[in-house]
Design brief:
By secondary structure, this protein is mainly α. It has 13 helices and no strands. The chain has one domain (2-311). Helices cover 80% and strands 0% of the residues. Helix 5 packs across helix 7 (152-176). The longest helix has 29 residues, at 216-244. The model is unreliable at 144-150 (pLDDT under 50).
Length: 312
C-alpha cells in the first residue's frame, strides 16, 4: 500500500505545483508581481518556520557555512526564481502551461551547472546534446522574431527561463557549500529571507500595497500559493525525496505542465499551442539524455516496484 500512497502523493505534488502557475496567473490581475511573490512567502515562510520548530531539534542556522546556505536559498532559490517567474507570468503572452514547460528545464540546467562548477563532473557529448535540446525547447516556446526581439512575449518567456536558471544555479551552489542543515530549517529561513529581499525589490520597482485590488480571487490565489503550493507542496516533496530519490522526484517537473495546462484551460480559458507541446517534448528529451545513466540505473528498481504492485 505504501507504493500506492507514494504514487498518489507524486500525482498530488505534480497537480499542486502545476496548478500553481494558474494561481499565479489569476492572482497577477490583482497584485503587483513582485509584491505578490513576497506576500506568498511571508505566509509560507512563517508556516515553514513553525514546522521546523516542531520537527527539528535546533531550527536555527549556526555558523558561516549554514548561513551561506541560507543566503543562496534566499537570493536564488526563492527571491531570484520567483521575482523572474512572477514578472514573466505577468505578460498575457505567457500562459500557465508555457511557464510550467520552461520551468521544467530546471533539472537539465541543474545538471549542466553541476558539470561546469563541480570539478569531478563533466558533460559528455551526449549530455551536451541533451542540454542543447533543452535550450532548443525554450527557443521553440519563445519563438523569437529577429525583427521584434524586445516584444513582450519573448522577453517574458526569457524572464521565466531566467527563473529556471536561477533555481538550477542555486541548487548546485548549495551542494558546493561545505555545511549541513536540515531541509526544514533551510527552507524556512530561505523563504523568510527571500520574502524580505522580494519586498525590497518590490519597493525598488515602485510596487506598493495601494496597488493591490482585494477580491475573492486575489485571496484564494494567495492562499493557494502560500498554503498548498509552498507549505504543503514542500512537505510532500521532502517526503518523496527521502523515499523515491532524486531521479524519480525530478520527474515531477515533467508531469506538472500537464496539470498547468489543464488548470489554465479550466479556470483561465487558456489554450495549449503546438509550440508549447513541442517545447515540452524537446525539454523532456534533453532531460532523458542528460540523466540517461541515472535513469538506466533506476530501471531495475522501478521494474521491481511494478512487479511488487502486481503481487499486491
Amino acid at each position: 500500500m505504501s507504493r500506492y500512497r507514494d504514487f498518489g502523493l507524486f500525482l498530488a505534488l505534480a497537480a499542486v505545483w502545476g496548478s500553481a502557475f494558474m494561481a499565479i496567473k489569476a492572482g497577477l490581475a490583482y497584485f503587483p508581481p513582485v509584491l505578490f511573490a513576497a506576500l506568498r512567502y511571508d505566509v509560507a515562510g512563517v508556516l515553514m518556520l513553525g514546522y521546523a520548530v516542531w520537527a527539528v531539534d535546533d531550527p536555527f542556522p549556526r555558523g558561516r557555512g549554514e548561513w551561506a546556505l541560507i543566503a543562496v536559498g534566499s537570493t536564488l532559490l526563492i527571491a531570484g526564481y520567483h521575482v523572474l517567474l512572477f514578472l514573466g507570468e505577468s505578460d498575457p503572452a505567457v500562459t500557465s502551461a508555457a511557464a510550467a514547460v520552461i520551468v521544467s528545464l530546471s533539472p537539465v540546467l541543474t545538471t549542466g551547472f553541476a558539470r561546469a562548477l563541480l570539478p569531478a563532473e563533466r558533460l559528455t557529448v551526449v549530455g551536451s546534446v541533451g542540454l542543447l535540446c533543452g535550450l532548443l525547447g525554450v527557443a521553440v516556446l519563445a519563438r523569437p522574431d529577429p525583427d521584434a526581439l524586445v516584444t513582450g512575449g519573448v522577453v517574458a518567456k526569457l524572464l521565466v527561463f531566467g527563473a529556471a536558471t536561477a533555481f538550477a544555479l542555486g541548487s548546485v551552489l548549495t551542494r558546493r557549500i561545505d555545511a549541513e542543515l536540515p531541509i526544514e530549517t533551510m527552507e524556512a529561513w530561505s523563504m523568510i529571507g527571500g520574502a524580505l529581499l522580494m519586498h525590497l525589490v518590490a519597493v525598488g520597482l515602485g510596487e506598493s500595497v495601494a496597488d493591490v485590488s482585494l477580491s475573492t480571487t486575489a485571496v484564494l490565489s494567495l492562499a493557494y500559493l502560500a498554503l498548498a503550493a509552498s507549505a504543503l507542496g514542500f512537505l510532500i516533496y521532502f517526503h518523496l525525496l527521502d523515499r523515491l530519490g532524486a531521479v524519480e522526484i525530478n520527474l515531477v517537473s515533467y508531469v506538472a505542465p500537464v496539470f498547468a495546462a489543464l488548470a489554465g484551460w479550466l479556470f483561465l480559458d487558456e489554450g495549449l499551442s503546438p509550440a508549447t507541446a513541442a517545447g515540452f517534448l524537446l525539454i523532456f528529451l534533453g532531460f532523458l539524455l542528460v540523466k540517461r545513466r541515472a535513469i538506466r540505473a533506476e530501471l531495475p528498481r522501478l521494474g521491481a516496484s511494478i512487479r511488487g504492485l502486481g503481487d499486491d
